[in-house]
Write a structure and sequence with these properties.
Radius of gyration: 46 Å
Distance between the termini: 97 Å
Largest sheet: 3 strands, antiparallel
Oligomer: single chain
Helix content: 10-25%
Number of strands: 10
Structural class: alpha+beta
Strand content: 25-35%
């Protein structure tokens, strides 16, 4: 076990083995001769033990809140709420109504039309865009609920091969 004590000449804290109590040695800081005190001498502490609290703290026992004493609690915060003359714009747009509710909004029924590209090929000419445009003009933009692209495979009758093609699926009120 080690003992801690202060040099009587310079005040340097020294630590020596407790077996050296009563022996003389030179202070490594001021190089003055001193006698190592015994364990029961005043001002001597055991290594690893907490130093005794000062006398004025012994009389005033109070609990310190670590959160209130932290640096974050001492930081001043100045918040301001923005003031506007008109309502602010909405940053979140409302989602579209589901198909079931869109159908209930009017007396028209929901219908589905699928247009395949292979059905629009006439004598080597692809008229897919024309057919889709004609159908959308006939239905009207206000009645269209959704337009989805589809990809499908079919067996070609002439070559007996599996071919992939595309089309559109149009959901509308009509």
């Amino acid at each position: 076990m080690d003992i801690l004590f202060d040099c009587p000449h310079c005040g340097q804290e020294l630590e020596v083995d407790s077996d050296a109590a009563g022996t003389e040695l030179n202070c490594p800081t001021c190089n003055q001769r001193l006698v190592v005190p015994s364990l029961d001498s005043p001002g001597v502490r055991v290594s690893g033990a907490a130093p005794p609290p000062p006398l004025h703290h012994a009389r005033e026992a109070h609990v310190i809140n670590p959160i209130a004493a932290s640096a974050a609690a001492k930081e001043e915060k100045h918040f301001q709420v923005p003031i506007r003359d008109k309502p602010s714009e909405s940053l979140i747009s409302k989602p579209l109504k589901p198909l079931e509710f869109a159908a209930k909004d009017s007396e028209k029924h929901i219908r589905v039309k699928t247009i395949r590209r292979i059905d629009c090929v006439e004598v080597g000419r692809d008229k897919f865009d024309e057919h889709v445009s004609e159908f959308l003009a006939k239905v009207g933009e206000q009645n269209i609920i959704s337009i989805n692209t589809v990809t499908y495979t079919y067996i070609d009758i002439g070559s007996q091969k599996l071919l992939t093609d595309f089309g559109v699926l149009i959901v509308y009120k009509g």
